Amino acid sequence: MNNTIVRLFSAAVLALLFSGWVQAEELRQVDPDRVGMSADRLARLDGILESYIKEDRIAGQVVMVLRHGGIVFADANGWRDKAAGAPMTQDTIFRIASQTKAIVSTGIMILNERGLLDIADPLSRYFPEWEDLQVAVADGEGGYTLEPARQPITLRHLLTHTSGVSYGSGPAQELWEQAGFQGWYFANKNESIGESIARMGSLPIDAQPGESWIYGYNTDILGAVIEKASGKDLWTFLRTEILEPLDMHDTHFYLPREKANRLAVVYRPGPNGKVEAIPERDGMESQGLYVQGSGPNRSYSGGAGFLSTARDYSRFLQMMLNGGELGGVRILSPKTVELMTTSHLGDIPFRPGQGFGLGFSIVEDLGTRGTVGSEGEFGWGGAYHSSYWVDPEEDLVVVYLTQIIPATGLDDYARLRNGIYQAIVD
Asked: I want to staple 88 with a disulfide (CB 3.0 to 4.6 A). Which of 45, 60, 143, 326 is the partner?
């Protein structure tokens, strides 16, 4: 009887893990000196980060650093809302914009593992509207000509940003603008992401698929593909397959009203160099329609729609660093993570010393990149000046969140990076 109970219990746990309802354990604070980092040297980061607040160049920021799976540094400086006198806290929620891309790319790879799609599939398999593609070629006189695409866009092209699709800024920009596709903002659209992507398929793209690295709507398109392949809307799929299993309970497309007071205000550099709040609008450089009930709340932007916290995003990245698992909950296989964090660009130009994988930039030559870190490091960032990276060689995760756009004249990324690596002493 006891053995039967044990077997039934084990089967129930496995079923819950598969369905995404078992949550990974909480990340723990650890003594930096016990994991090869100097606590005294890490303390220097306080002054480095606070200097931007004191000089009024950034309103506030949150940073979280993990090594060997434990939190060695967590800091919140400045203001979530200066006018209201609300201080920045570790549970402040940020618009993470393009940091959404890594989570959605992970969603695609979950479906790839389950055989519900293949990253070699043509996009037209899911959206026939993308079958007869036209490429806009600049004619050197301010206009353009159209030529047929030489190959179809594949899901792999979208994952690597080599599909030829921009944010509507190419030679046929006026057609993209007329269709309502300019920039990353989708929160004001009164249509589903699937409807948007279907409409987008009639527009000329900016380059031949597979020939150039062009940043654009690639991951928004992948979000719509997830809906087609899974039979679920993007929010439901990501919530049940990634967010709930990893206990990322503060990550949302549209923030519940009871959490609205934790959302950081968006700032910009003022005319005197001091930060000022951006006016309340529904555009992509404003406070935006990110709270439930503030807009249509219909479009789930897989490229830039998420809001999150340093804690939540650190959990996602630690899962990737662990080879697809966190605290007994497996999201991906190690081989899938390896594929995602390997550059797929070949000879396609990108950034010096870097390539691009399936959702992440990858450091390939440390000296050519020219900043401290490690080869094999992967990461990205968001339009509101948030950033993250994972360094497998040093078993390190870094999440840095703030809300300023544009981040004119700021050098905080470099100083943050230097401050973290100078504290590694093993």
From this structure: 60
Of the candidates 78, 76, 82, the residue with the CA atom closest to the CA atom of residue 62: 76
**Measuring CA to CA, how many Å separate 79 from each of 42, 74, 264, 387?**
22, 16, 8, 18
Nearest to 146 by CA among 199, 88, 208, 200: 208
How far is CA 13 from each of CA 17, 242, 244, 323, rounded to the nearest angstrom?
6, 17, 15, 21
d(CA 302, CA 374): 29
pLDDT means per 10 residues in the chain (426 residues)? Answer: 42 43 82 97 94 97 98 98 98 98 99 98 98 96 96 98 98 97 96 98 98 98 98 98 98 98 97 91 93 96 98 98 97 98 98 98 98 98 98 98 96 98 98
Give the domains, in start order, of the chain with CATH numbers. 24-100+237-421 (3.40.710.10), 106-230 (3.40.710.10)
Instruction: Return left, alpha or beta for 300; rule: phi > 0 is left, psi -120 to 50 is alpha, else beta.
Output: beta
